[in-house]
């Protein structure tokens, strides 16, 4: 039986209860019989029996030495991007400081403060606000009986409210202090539907939507579109309705469409007025025209490489019998069908993505007009690869045709016939086509096999990325008009494919060559790119020459910062930054611009940025907490929400105050026990009662 906190009465019977109970029953029966017979001294005998019974029960006073345990209160500060709107963050920090000072006055309270939703919390933090995850982590080591409650300082846009609210009641009252203002309004632009991939040259369909919250403020709104950093264009989009539009996929890799809707009359932030769609362009089928001037050992290398790729449609044109060959073979025995030269080189030439001349020389098979068509095809954006054989060093060279105007190197008329190992130049180690080729060792000789023939050329334009014998140019890459040209001054790539002296990286080199010629963004030699991994942005700049220009990053909220780039020996400079908010980040070096889209297409954090208590009202009702607006307690009316310690069974909130329950938990450090009936006093009292009863009965 407890008398006071830490004090109680304990019973320690001298005999087991199985013996005491019958004795007490017999004694009570004898006393009842005495009362029934009206015997004298019965009350004195009853007193003696009671004293002996208490002595047998052996009651004692137990005093516990208790040490109070502090209750734990948790303050969760919302540090998500939506808190950057207006004065919300300043209000939150001021309220946190005020609460911290107020709660320090309670000696029996331990305060824990956690921040949730900042950039360091991970990628999901910039898309959604998870306050209850942070709360659970903060009180993971605290027994629920010690929890005094929690205070959430937030704008109310919380995305991890538990479904089972009953479990929250165990931790005490959960109060919400809202940092925004009542009756806020905002406009947002959302992506309803957008594909992740599209075929190059074909448009994809997008669905967007403009919403005014809490109600529609206008019939339509102007949306500005900008694709891949190009010139802007404006369209009118109805407010509150889905709007369908088309996005042309102009190239492989990322096609980025920026969209921005004009501001409404009520705007909390322009961050959700902007969005972007990233569609990865893929080529349906790559059409390659391979023109082999004569049969040779390397012809099969080209054919096998191109046929091994299921996405390549190869048209192979081999000159088996030049016009000057006269051996009397009947015409009907020369071929089964006539090769469609006019259809390929005049009518359907623009349908090819890449043209390869392999060991070709002038023989009158292709008229000058068709070679002029190919030169014009390159100028307009086509891709040409020329692998020089012996014929390039002769007067029959392609350089002596209209194609000479797009060729990057002029033949000297000499051929080099001695063993050599192709080497990557310093420029080549910065060029994405040859940088990091397997087998290349910048500080020593490459590990691949030798070649034995090379045409001597003098480069006029372009970048020499590989050298051959006597450090003569071997592989030259050039941009001509809108197109690209690559020239390989040897026809012995096939030695690598046959594994001669260990072979070489012919497959990787030719793959990179083809993709660079077809303008794949990943192989641009002078480029600025941004890659997003979660909430981390990696900025990369590749250049053939050292570039000292600084990089400027602009955040979705229009804040700018300068990035410090670290360059390696391959010509790639990079920097990594942590994104603090979802949206479009713009990176520029003054000449080139790259875009990075961080977060989900429609991040919940920006879906509705109005401050509200609706999401947390159920939590307050279930736990006994309250929802209060910080802005209502500023401006000289009231100094702020008061904080009180309350009993667990009392009300935990009021109009201008919140309560944190006082649980009164403790640990017992010692126990003292004092008998309530000393043995001598018990015996004297019992004997005295019996003597008085005997004396009374003896009268």
From TrEMBL:
Keywords: Coiled coil, Membrane, Transmembrane, Transmembrane helix. Gene3D superfamilies: 3.40.50.880. SUPFAM superfamilies: Class I glutamine amidotransferase-like (SSF52317). InterPro entries: Class_I_gatase-like (IPR029062). CDD domains: A4_beta-galactosidase_middle_domain. The chain crosses the membrane at residues 14-35, 42-62, 676-694. Residues 82-109 form a coiled coil. This is Glutamine amidotransferase domain-containing protein. It comes from Azospirillum formosense.
């Amino acid at each position: 039986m407890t008398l006071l906190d830490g004090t109680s009465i304990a019973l320690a019977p001298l005999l087991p209860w199985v013996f005491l109970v019958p004795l007490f029953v017999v004694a009570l029966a004898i006393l009842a019989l005495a009362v029934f017979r009206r015997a004298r001294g019965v009350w004195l005998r009853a007193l003696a029996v009671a004293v002996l019974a208490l002595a047998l029960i052996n009651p004692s006073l137990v005093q516990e030495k208790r040490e109070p345990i502090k209750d734990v209160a948790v303050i969760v500060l919302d540090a998500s991007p939506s808190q950057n709107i207006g004065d919300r963050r300043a209000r939150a920090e001021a309220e946190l400081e005020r609460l911290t000072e107020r709660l320090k006055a309670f000696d029996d309270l331990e305060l824990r403060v956690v921040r949730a939703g900042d950039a360091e919390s991970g990628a999901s933090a910039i898309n959604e606000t998870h306050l209850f995850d942070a709360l659970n982590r903060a009180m993971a080591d605290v027994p629920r009986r010690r929890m005094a409650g929690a205070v959430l300082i937030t704008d109310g846009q919380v995305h991890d409210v538990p479904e089972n609210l009953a479990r929250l009641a165990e931790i005490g009252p959960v109060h919400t202090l809202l940092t925004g203002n009542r009756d806020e309004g905002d406009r947002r632009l959302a992506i309803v539907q957008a594909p992740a991939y599209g075929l190059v040259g074909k448009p994809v369909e997008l669905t967007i939507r403009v919403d005014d919250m809490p109600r529609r403020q206008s019939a339509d709104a102007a949306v500005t579109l900008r694709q891949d950093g190009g010139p802007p264009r404006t369209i009118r989009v109805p407010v509150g309705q889905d709007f369908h539009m088309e996005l042309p996929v102009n190239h492989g890799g990322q096609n980025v469409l920026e969209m921005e809707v004009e501001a409404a009359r009520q705007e909390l932030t322009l961050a959700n007025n902007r969005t972007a769609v990233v569609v990865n362009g893929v080529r349906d089928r790559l059409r390659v025209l391979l023109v082999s001037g004569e049969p040779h050992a390397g012809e099969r290398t080209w054919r096998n490489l191109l046929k091994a790729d299921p996405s390549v449609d190869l048209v192979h044109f081999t000159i088996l019998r030049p016009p000057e060959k006269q051996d009397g073979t009947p015409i009907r025995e020369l071929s089964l069908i006539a090769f469609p030269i006019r259809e390929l080189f005049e009518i359907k030439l623009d349908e090819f993505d890449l043209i390869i001349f392999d060991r070709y020389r002038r023989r009158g098979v292709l008229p000058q007009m068709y070679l002029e068509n190919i030169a014009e095809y390159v100028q307009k954006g086509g891709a040409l690869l020329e692998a020089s054989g012996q014929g390039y060093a002769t007067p029959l060279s392609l350089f002596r045709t209209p194609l000479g105007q797009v060729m990057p190197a002029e033949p000297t008329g000499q051929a080099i016939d001695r063993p050599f190992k192709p080497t990557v130049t310093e420029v080549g180690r910065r060029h994405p086509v040859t940088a990091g080729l397997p087998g290349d060792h910048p500080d020593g000789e490459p590990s691949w096999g030798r070649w034995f023939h090379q045409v001597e050329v003098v480069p006029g334009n372009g970048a020499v990325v590989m050298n051959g014998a006597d450090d003569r140019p071997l592989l030259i890459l050039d941009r001509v008009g809108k197109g690209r040209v690559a020239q390989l001054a040897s026809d012995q790539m096939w030695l690598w494919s046959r594994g001669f002296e260990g072979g070489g990286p012919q497959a990787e080199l030719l793959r990179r060559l083809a993709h660079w010629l077809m303008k794949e963004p990943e192989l641009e030699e002078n480029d600025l790119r941004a890659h997003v991994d979660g909430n981390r942005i990696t900025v990369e700049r590749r250049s053939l020459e050292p570039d000292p220009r600084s990089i400027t990053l602009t955040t979705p909220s229009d804040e700018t910062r300068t990035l410090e780039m670290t360059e390696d020996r391959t010509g790639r400079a990079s920097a990594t930054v942590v994104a603090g908010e979802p949206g479009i980040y713009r990176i520029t070096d003054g000449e080139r611009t790259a875009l990075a889209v961080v977060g989900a297409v429609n991040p919940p954090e920006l879906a509705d940025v109005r401050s509200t208590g609706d999401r947390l009202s159920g939590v307050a009702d279930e736990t006994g907490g309250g929802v209060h607006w910080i802005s209502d307690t500023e401006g000289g009316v009231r100094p702020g929400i008061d904080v009180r310690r309350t009993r667990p069974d009392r009300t935990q909130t009021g109009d201008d105050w919140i309560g944190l329950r006082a649980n009164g938990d403790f640990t017992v450090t010692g126990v003292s026990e004092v008998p309530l009936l000393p043995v001598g006093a018990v015996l004297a009292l019992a004997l005295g009662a019996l003597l008085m009863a005997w004396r009374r009965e003896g009268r």
